[in-house]
Amino acid sequence: MLDHVDGLRADAERGEAIFGTVDTWLLWNLTGGVSGGVHATDVTNASRTMLMDLTTLDWDDELLELFTVPRPMLPRIAPSATPEPYGLTSALGPFAGELPITGVLGDQQAATVGQVCFAPGEAKNTYGTGNFLLLNTGPDIVRSKSGLLTTVCFKFGADPAVYALEGSIAVTGAAVQWLRDQLGIISGAADSEMLAAQVTDTGGVYFVPAFSGLFAPYWRADARGAIVGLSRFHTSAHLARATLEAIAYQTRDVVEAMERDSGVRLEVLKVDGGVTANDLAMQLQADILGVPVSRPVVAETTALGAAYAAGLAAGFWRDTGELRANWHESKRWQPSWTEERRTNGYAGWRKAVQRTLDWVDVGP
Questions:
Q1: pLDDT at 96
Q2: What's the first-to-final CA gap in the chain, in angstroms?
Q3: CA angle, corner 79, sides to 76 and 83, nearest 5?
Q4: What is the reported pLDDT for 93?
């Protein structure tokens, strides 16, 4: 738009055409919009634009020049939780009266706060159509050498920023939807558990749902989905179980990358999102990782984390210790596989992943 809409770049350079992520747009409108709206964002959302310096927590002039983005059009960057409010809700908006807005967090960072992963080495995994696994690395910026993203996890008030490693997986819950919508072997997502439970293992079948390539830690756009190890013995139940195992194996790929980068051994994986309602999928996750898997009572951890940030800043909660006391576990799954089964199963998965690579030509 800056390059192709006449006059827009000049407006942006004067700060008369402004830009922001979704949180910025919401904040702008909640505080009055064109009638005095606040133009700001927090460090977690700003880190997603590829325009912020992770060290200074400010817009980076070199990156702004590289992407030809005028600084005056960008929002002010603030902490995720701030006792000095971003602004007050407008009387003209959906809220009656002027309410302080004290917390702003990006989606996955909010889920991490909602899971009270406040200490280095604590991690959560959100299971949706894809998966997003974040590992708290504390005040240290860990530059990934294993295909992960380095991001800001949160910043509370004047405290130093806390950073994280993130691994994004493209297709997890979406693979279960594929069984329902494309293959028609289940009528609903919940049926995948019952179908998969009809067999005690996959009989050597692996399903790698690389429908549009592989994300972390591989980053291979040339990969495509594959089901390998089939024989006439196999049934739809084996394929359903292989689908649930694929969710767990892809998570293990990311966990192993995180352990290589951080040097921290995962002790327990906190989970949230729709797939966590599938008990068999979570048991397989514990079996394949070899660590306990813990699901909280409150499954909507993203909304909860945003509320935690706002409540901390407003003084509703005194500190993160109080938030930890507020977190309660709904269910925990313990690993049941032998180490030999876990090792052999993962070796087969890595072999199956290799079969998906170099399938389509990408790039020049």
A1: 66
A2: 26
A3: 110
A4: 62
Phi then psi for residue 324, to 5 deg, are: -60, -40
Tokens linked to 64: 């702004």
What residue ranges in 40-176 does DSSP mark as E strands? 40-42, 52-53, 58-59, 76-78, 87-88, 100-101, 123-127, 131-138, 149-154, 162-169
β pairing state of 40-42 and 87-88:
unpaired
Return the closest-CA partner of residue 189 out of 236, 151, 244.
244
- The span from the CA of 339 to the CA of 230, in Å, is 25
Contact 209, 178 (CB under 8 A): yes
Collapse the DSSP code of 44 into the 3-class scheme (helix H, G, I; strand E, B; otherwise coil) and give the result. helix
pLDDT of amino acid 244: 98
Mean pLDDT score across all residues of the chain: 95
d(CA 242, CA 236): 10
Cβ atoms 243, 262 nearer than 8 A? no
Residues of the chain with pLDDT under 70: 92-94, 96, 364
Inter-axis angle of helices 339-356 and 279-289, nearest 10: 100
User: Residue 340 and residue 335: Cα distance in Å, rounded?
Assistant: 13
Contact in structure between 352 and 228 (CB atoms under 8 Å): yes
Which DSSP letter does residue 99 get? Answer: -
The two three-digit tokens of residue 203, written as one number = 């009989």
Listed residue (313, 317, 316) closest to 155, CA to CA: 313
Kind and range of the H or E run holding 173: helix 173-178
Query: Tens digits of per-residue pLDDT, 70-100?
Result: 999 999 999 999 999 999 998 766 676 789 9
Cα(273)–Cα(314) distance, integer angstroms: 28
Q: Are 345 and 337 in contact (CB under 8 A)?
A: yes
pLDDT, position 361: 86
133-142 as b/e: b if 16+ CB within 10 A = bbbbbbeeeb
Residue 80 CB-half CA count within 13 A: 29
Q: From residue 274, give the alpha-carbon distance in Å to each of 125, 190, 249, 271.
A: 11, 10, 18, 10
Q: Following DSSP, what letter does each residue of 52-74 receive, concatenated? A: EETTTTEE-HHHHHHHT--GGGS
The DSSP line for 316-341 is SS-SHHHHHHH--EEEEE---S-HHH
